[in-house]
Amino acid sequence: MLPLLVLAVLAAAAAQNDTQPPRPPAPRREQFRVIYEWNSIDYEWRSPEDRDAYLSTNRYIPQNVLISGINFYGENLFVTVPRMLDGVPATLATIPVQQSDTAPKLRPFPTWEANAAGNCSALQFVQNIEIDKNGIMWILDNGRVGTLTQNPDPKCAPSLVLIDLKTGKNEMERITFPADILNPNSTYLNDLVVDNRDGDYAYITDNSAVDPGIIVFRRSDKKSWKVRDSKSMLSSPDATAFRINGTSVNLPVNIDGIALGPQFLTADDQVDRTVYYCPLSSFHLYAINASVLRNEKLGSADGALRPYVVDVGTKASQTDGMKMDANGVLFYGLIGNSTIAEWNTTVDFHVGQRTIARDPNYIQWVDRFTFDDHGNVYVIVNRLYNFVKGHVNTNEVNYRILKSHTGSKSYVFAEDLKPANVPGAAAAPTLAASLLVLALAHLIA
């Protein structure tokens, strides 16, 4: 009976694929090239005296400033500078898209005052941001600073901060996460994706060493909840060792990277999306439908998420950041291989992974990706392994931004679908059938 069911699913998937329009020709590709690189990060200071004052009081320690996240809007690239160590003057900043300097100084965003350390109305620890299709910037502010020091300071509560970039006013709306959702002493808000449907949702990875999970935030009523799955969200003992260019580091880090696939129609004619995620210390990529994460009841029952999680497959190495484009192509790093890879999610993961760049000298710890509006993808490379071990050498290049033309745009601009029974709605490419086949294959095995 089970083989017949598998054949039926395969036939249905094939029939659906036959209804799809021909794929557009592959976009023109170019090799990744370095557009920015820094030995150490500096800022656009209000005055030379101000810089000297920060240096003399250890509020600015150049070797402690690491760029991590990246995003694009208008004429700027936004970069995040998490306060893992002391001496980080601003935790969110901009640099220009158009190059005028190969090592531009960071301009604090929105202002210097909005980045004041110790002021809980200001940004304290920004690991990552996202900018949705409506020009809203979603900022993860952990609140707790000094996470790599002996005494992290949880003075400020973990929050989500929203800024409407369209207005130009850059006013911050702060939503503090409830204490029963996040423990301010252990949470680590790492990355997020935004789903601009049904009142806007964010799916956020919390790689807390104590209570890892995915936080779901609904903007329409500012409600949040957390879902957990120990099997897919905890680090794997066989993947905690990293070795890059002769340097070894042990990092047992839980759920980390997250990506959001295009919309698809479910068997019962509902619009859904697939959320992909992985622990940093794991070789596996996992998937779950966004509709499952949106079910608040699954946030309170132990093991409730497990039946809905799909193990998509294994990668050649561990992955930190990853990003989906609007056509369902996933871009991700393979840290131990000094590689940037991609996977077209319409193809089976086991055979569809593809290396698009590999260089042990220039690709040393891929962190985050972003897309601009001209078909380019940008990648942060930050040698995080040296930073964690306290081995940053400011006499050599530590941080790079790479760029390649791929013809891609961000997943936030993916096509909006309507149920098939709505007049004028077109058949939609879907990952649901392939995930079901994969799940059944695991069942048979």
Count of individual domains: 1
* Strand order, sheet with most strands: 1-26-25-24
Task: Compute the CA-based radius of gyration.
Answer: 21 Å
- First-residue to last-residue Cα separation: 15 Å
Low-confidence stretches: 1-25, 424-434, 436-445
CATH class: Mainly Beta
The mean pLDDT is 90
CATH architecture: 6 Propeller
Structural class: mainly beta
Biggest sheet, open or closed, and with what strands and sense? Answer: 4 strands, antiparallel
Can you tell me the CATH superfamily? TolB, C-terminal domain
Tell me the β content. 25-35%
Tell me which oligomeric state these chains represent.
single chain
Outline the structure in words.
InterPro entries: 6-blade_b-propeller_TolB-like, MRJP/yellow-related. The protein has 445 residues and is mostly beta strands. It has one domain: TolB, C-terminal domain (Neuraminidase, 6 Propeller). It is globular, with a radius of gyration of 21 Å.
